[in-house]
Specification:
By secondary structure, the protein is mainly alpha-helical. The strands form two sheets. It has a two-stranded antiparallel sheet with strand order 1-2.
Length: 226
């Protein structure tokens, strides 16, 4: 797979030719790695299309069998078979300033809520999410990124990010001394990196949330702040 920007890939670039022991390796524009589709133009359109197809299939099944299921079983169906698709690896592909792609998934969450509540598709989506006590997918992605940083900072998981506070860098007693230093980027594209987004989200939290004594308390405070 030849990786580059859409503009450069559309230019006059020679075809990539790779062979091993005289066996030619096929060229591809995308491939699935650990459940996530990686594309040669470094966008997530292919992965979102994949998610949309799978989620629509499962919501179609829920719509067909919902009359057989009590309300709690329908919610369990969503939590067990639909929500994990929304959540899986969302710290990697989520947001990236692509509102159009993220709205495609948000529409599906709203659709699921209306199916469970037996509401018409043209009814209020916000009302449906409120009755089910669901936060939006954008809020879920924010929650997951902040939780990831909390685990890194407090040694719950191994990571290769250089997580230093502003106070560690310059030693001055400034207002932001307890916030993490943002990773250095040279172009706007670098701000789409997961580590940059996650640290930026973390710094937006109140210090009372960031300094929670344990992960259970951190989750509780973070959810209440959304």
């Amino acid at each position: 797979m030849l990786i580059g920007s859409s503009r450069k890939l559309a230019g006059n670039i020679r075809t990539l030719s790779v062979s091993i022991s005289n066996y030619g390796i096929s060229n591809v524009n995308s491939f699935k790695y650990l459940g996530v589709f990686l594309s040669n133009d470094l966008t997530w359109s292919k992965h979102i299309d994949y998610l949309t197809s799978k989620i629509n299939q499962r919501l179609g099944l829920l719509r067909r069998i919902k009359y057989l299921l009590p309300f709690k079983a329908q919610v369990l169906f969503y939590n067990g078979l639909v929500l994990p698709l929304f959540d899986y690896a969302d710290v990697v592909w989520g947001d990236k300033n692509n509102i159009t792609l993220m709205n495609k998934l948000q529409t599906l969450q709203k659709k699921a809520g209306k199916i469970i509540l037996d509401k018409p598709l043209y009814s209020s989506a916000s009302e449906a999410l409120g009755k089910l006590n669901w936060i939006t997918l954008e809020q879920r992605r924010f929650y997951h990124r902040c939780l990831f940083v909390y685990k890194c900072v407090n040694g719950y998981i191994y990571h290769s990010m250089d997580l230093l506070t502003a106070g560690d860098v310059h030693g001055y007693n400034t207002r932001n001394k307890d916030k993490l230093r943002l990773p250095h980027v040279t172009r706007n594209w670098g701000k789409q990196r997961m580590c940059y987004q996650a640290v930026n989200d973390w710094n937006s939290l109140e210090i009372d949330i960031r300094t929670s004594l344990n992960i259970k308390l951190f989750k509780h405070k973070l959810l209440n702040s959304l």
